Amino acid sequence: MKLLKLLFAGLLFFFALSAQAGLEEGKAAFKNTDYEAAMKELLPLAESGNAEAQSLVAYLYKKRPRSKELTNFWFLKAAAQNEPFAMYEVGFACKMQNNNEGLMYTLCPASNLNDITEILLLSEHYFNKALVIFEERANKGDYRAQEYLGSMYAFGNGASKNKEKAQYWLTKSVVQGDIEAAGYLTGLYADYAYYFHENADYLLQYEWEIIWSAMSSIKAKANFHWGSGGEGLKKAGKRRAIFLAKQWLKQNGREKELKWVEAQY
Q: Considering only CA atoms, which of 169, 206, 170, 201 is closest in space to residue 185?
């Protein structure tokens, strides 16, 4: 009997290790935008009840193959287990529902989608729970938590808008290779007037457009050029922005992106 218990415990340990390995491989594929490989690893784990896998599968269905129903299904399953990225998406959905924006925002689990009070309370509830976990994980170096925390401060989703905190966390995420965070920074600098009631900073906008272009091009093995730094940036300013982009990439060890910029500009 003792031997059988030991064998059973050993099997459970083996399956736990296998599941963790599959999760890590799926997360790596997701980060590298290899969505087919990510789905292959993550879907079985999601079906077995892994909340992190459920959340990632929801994102995969949000990207490709697109399915509003399956996206909502997996986000709600993960949010029910307090998975922070899923809770953020549900909170955001309720916020957009209150703004009368359709699209995928039927994700909001309000019993009455016409009850503004219930929708706002749900949005605040999910945002607040996600924020606490994001802060903890971001401080431990989780690049996705850093991205989402930065975006919350940038756009006022579940947190008061804070330019410095948004810049700090989004930049930390980009250093780890997060393209989405680079895109958020580009938009942030492009329109301070909209988000923070300040003048747009075209120099920083163009610097981050270059960095974002380089990161996107390396991932997709194609050339992307995002915008032109805005009409307010003159030729001399663009040269300065290119210099700053190269300097940032060099300082942060992004050698492939640096070579791409040198070849393109």
A: 170
Domain count within the chain:
2
Short-list 252, 201, 254, 248, CA closest to 229: 201
Query: Considering the domain boundaries, does residue 166 fall inside one?
Result: no
**Cβ atoms 94, 66 nearer than 8 A:** no
Q: Are 169 and 180 in contact (CB under 8 A)?
A: no
- pTM for the whole thing? 0.84
Check residue 194 and give its pLDDT: 63
Spell out the residues 6+ positions from residue 14 whose beta carbon is closer than 8 angstroms to its own. Answer: none
Q: Which domain holds residue 257?
A: 178-265
The encoded tokens of residue 164 equal: 């410095």
Q: How many helices (H) and strands (E) does the chain have?
A: 13, 0
Residue 254 domain flag: yes
pLDDT range class, residue 110, cuts 50, 70, 90: confident
Residue 225 lies in a domain: yes
Q: Is 145 helix (H, G, I), strand (E, B) or coil?
A: helix
Tell me the C-alpha distance between 191 and 202, whole Å.
9
Residues 261, 162: Cα–Cα separation, whole Å: 30
Which residue type sits at 60? L
Residues 117 and 196 both lie in one domain: no
**How high is the pLDDT of residue 27?**
94
Cβ–Cβ < 8 Å for 94, 76: no
Contacts of residues 97-105 at CB distance under 8 Å and 24 or more positions apart, as own/partner, are: 98/123, 104/62, 104/68, 104/71, 104/72
Neighbours of 51 (CB within 10 A): 20
Residue 238 lies in a domain: yes
What token pair was written down for 248?
Answer: 């940032």
